[in-house]
Design goal:
Elements lengths: L1 E6 L10 E8 L6 E8 L3 E5 L10 E2 L5 H20 L1
Antiparallel strand pairs: 1-2, 2-3, 3-4, 4-5
Length: about 80
């Protein structure tokens, strides 16, 4: 799992001045399993159909990157639990 948060210049793409990227990769082949990022016009969103459909996005309704990290970690736990079963 990789969690990156950067302060960037405010812009149309990043109006809050925060760029975030959280990803979960398969340890064996390094393929992406789950990705959350933020940019306009979507705000925070998850890519849940990786690697087959990278353009599929699910909106995530959080107030800031701290809430987004918590949400992402919960989704990672859920995903890994489902893989065990």
């Amino acid at each position: 799992m990789v969690i990156k948060v950067f302060r960037v210049d405010r812009s149309l793409r990043f109006p809050q001045g925060i760029k975030a990227k959280f990803l979960l990769q398969n340890k064996e082949d390094r393929s992406l399993m789950l990705l959350m990022d933020n940019h306009e016009p979507f705000g925070f969103h998850m890519h849940t159909r990786l690697p087959h459909d990278p353009d599929h996005r699910i909106p995530v309704h959080v107030h800031d990157y701290r809430e987004a990290i918590i949400y992402f970690k919960e989704e990672v736990r859920r995903l890994l639990e489902n893989e065990k079963n």
